[in-house]
Structures are given as C-alpha cells and as structure tokens.
Amino acid sequence: MSQTQPLLEVKNLKVGFRTDRGNVTAIEDVSFQVRAGEILGIVGESGCGKSVTSRSIMRLLPERNSFIDPGSEILFDGKNLAQADERTMRTIRGNRIAMIFQEPMTALNPVFTIGWQLDEALKYHTTMNKTERRNHAVEMLRSVEIPNPEQRYREYPHQLSGGMRQRVVISLALCCDPELLIADEPTTALDVTIQAQILRLMDKLRQKNDTAVVLITHDLGVIAQICDRVIVMYAGQIVETSEVNALFSRPQHPYTKALLESIPQPGPAHHQTRLPTIDGVVPSLFELPAGCRFQDRCAFEEDQCAREKPALSKEANSRTVRCFFPRNES
Hints:
By secondary structure, the chain is of the alpha/beta class. 33% of the residues lie in helices and 22% in strands.
C-alpha cells in the first residue's frame, strides 16, 4: 500500500435500527479516512454515534435489528466491509482489525485464564504451534508492561487489577499484529495515573508497529494528548474534522467551541468563574429537528438553521465543518 492511500476509508456511512416505533437512523453521512501509523480521535457526548460507528467498521452490530444502508462503503485496504459476508469478516476481525472494548471485565471471559484466552486468538489466526503460541503470548503481556507475565499468563481476570486487565485486553487486541486498532473508551473507569500509562503504551505500540488507531472517547484531554486528527460527532453526524492542534486553538463548529469552553482550566482566576455548560440535551433520534441538529442548544442560531440542513463543507487545511455560520476566531 502506498503512503498516500488510506488504510481505512469510510464513505457516506448510514446505519439504522428497527424498533417498535419503526426504523430509526443512528448514523448518517459519516465519512473519514485513517492512514497507517495515524491516531484518529472520535469525540462527542454519549449517544452521538461514536460506538455505533466503530462497531459498524467491525460489523459487530446486532444482526436482528440493525442495518447498514446499501450506499455506505467501509473500505479497508480496498475491500468494502459493508458488503462483506460473515466468513470474510471472521478472517479480518482480531487479525487485521482489532478492537479494545470499553470494560475489560466484560471483554475477558472470567472462567478462563489469561493465557488460554491469548492462546485461543493465536490458534485461530496464526499457524504457530502450542509452544510458540505460549511464548508469543507471554511476550505480548511483557510488551504491555505487565509485571511477571509468566505468572499472569496462568491467572484469571479477577486476580488482576483494573489497569492490568485493560493491558491484557490491549495485548489480546495486538497479539496478531493488526493493521488497524479500534479503541472504544479504553481508559474509562481507570484512575488518571493508569489512564496516562495506557495512553503512553498505545502511542508506543503505534510507533513501533505503524498501527493505525481509531480512538473513541468523550474526553478531550485524551484527544489532545495522543491524537493526530479528530472527528467531532453530534446526534449521529460529523460536525467537524480537523488536525488536533487546529481544533483546540481555532474550533469552528459552535458545538466544538462549547465543548472546549466547558473544560476546567487551571489557575486561580478560574476558581472564581462558573464553569460554562451546554444547555439542553442531544435530541432523540426519533425527534430530530428539521434543520441543524444542534440548533436548540446553539448560542449562534439564525433563522436559516431551523429551516435548512447544513452540509459538511470543506474549509482551509482539509478541515470540514457542518455549519452555516462557522466560528472563525483566531
């Protein structure tokens, strides 16, 4: 693959669910690219569509009530995963594309040892013999900085701390050297010290293996610390994409601007100031506004926002923004 060709390219992704109240669209008009060795962050409030987007890439949505629109494309190394059958996806999941799930205790099977679970992944996706699989599994535990990996290999998930379990989940995701790693809230519920260690570890492994990473989070601090580019999502749509430094210094969508203003700032002067908040809530997918989806919460709303749906327009330096009146403050 050439350096300029994206490893993953999502085009016009539209995902819906069948419910008792009829079909509802959860993701609409979502397009982005990820290149080898890049960390792309996807940020937004709960319910904005981050996890549905990531599970769509892996084709892990519930079959009985979910559907991907036929016009959607999820191109991985040129293959459209949106149209791939389950047999094809089994050869890709865990092998070429891996995922770190949000809660390590639900990602790990409590009745099997850590070693058994690593061995199962290697047995399915590699041609290693039993001894080679064990040695590789122990080395993977060592690579994610788990102390005494030979002992941890024989232990069960409940015998490990939360931070160590998350490291095991990362080693499971990376044991087959995937080209793309999707991390869905990988540091949620971890204390800040362990969170920083996990982020440093992901960045270190990215640099070592040139693995592309899609990082799903609601934490803008995590985005600032580790990501190269960032996508901001709201109510199932992308509202802004940008290189990470430009996003923090010059947010253009009012939602992005409001998110950044709501972050607590250090310094004694800020102790006397009430922390800004975003009034209202994310609209129900069953009751989306006719125009802009952020209009009811936007401080810069105009009449046009209520009447028309804004398109995702390209700005300078490959930025995109879904707004009729983007903020252009420097």
